Amino acid sequence: MKNKKGFALIGLLLALSIIGLLALIGLRVYDGDQQVKGKNVTVQEKAKNVIVKANVETIQSLIQAELADKDINRDDAAYIAQNAGLYNPFNEIIMNTSEWFPENA
What we know:
The protein is built from three helices and four strands, in the order αββααββ. Strands 1-2 form a two-stranded antiparallel sheet. The protein is mainly alpha-helical. It has helices at about 1-30, 45-70, 75-80, and strands spanning about 35, 40, 85-90, 95.
């Protein structure tokens, strides 16, 4: 009888330690401090980076659609990007894109 009780206690301790380890891992993920290429990056910063990447892809798609219709220059591309209604989530202002394109393009 003593062996069965001891085995149940060890099993219970093992199960509790596994649950505690899983809870610790879960808290680490949802805490917001995650390692990205050696840097601590919060979930909010990752979300802002995703927004910026999506904005860049949107601008690229708009410019490519305009290029399919006609040949455009740097000023036309900047006008398209500025009027896309996109903003920079890091400083929450509309991006000035006229500096993104080389002068002699």
